[in-house]
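Record passed on underneath.
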Amino acid sequence: MSSRERILEKLREGERPFSPSNPPAFYQPMTPVADDDPAALRARFVVEAQKAACVVHPVKTPEAAIGVILHLLGGETAVSAWDLAQIPIPGLADALEQAGKTLVGQDASARVGLTGVDAALAATGSVVVMSGNGRWRTASLLPPVHIAVVQGNQIMPHLESWWAAQKADGLEHTRQRSNIVIITGPSRTADIAMQLVMGMHGPQELHLILLG
């Protein structure tokens, strides 16, 4: 028996410091949401996202969403983007091609990243972004400007309700993804002299295209 196994054996034989207990049947959400009506969730999400320094662009049509994206891209010709089949805007691929925008996938030199999201959390104004095939992780983490497309039906009350929905589906969707990131506003830090610096470890701007 190795020294490691002897130590572990002693620990297993030792007296337990706490008596066994059953986990609670219900956990209170960290940030409760009183009204889960879809319109109320949408309004709460917009308010909380703006508090976190996001720029929210509510749009009613795919054409309006494309117009906002092209305006934000400006003179940029390269876009670090997900596979456009993963971004729910019909006609986006043709519009970008006609505007002379090239999709570069995982290019760290691109100034703008374009992604969809997997969920939006009303309680905190956060978006859930899961990477995988055709969903480059770098598109939301490296470019100075991140544009994320949010569908209205993706807005959920809070992180706990989103995770409960994943568990109810057997976690099949999450197991297919290589990485899960919860993004609340642009990247920021105040490690040095308690001075807030935006964009230190990721995008300096986060634009949310909120489809109606």
Q: What stands out?
A: The helical segments are 3-13, 38-51, 62-73, 92-98, 138-141, 159-168, 172-175. The chain has a mean pLDDT of 92. Residues 34-211 form a domain with the Rossmann fold fold (CATH 3.40.50.10420). Residues 38-51 form the longest helix (14 residues).
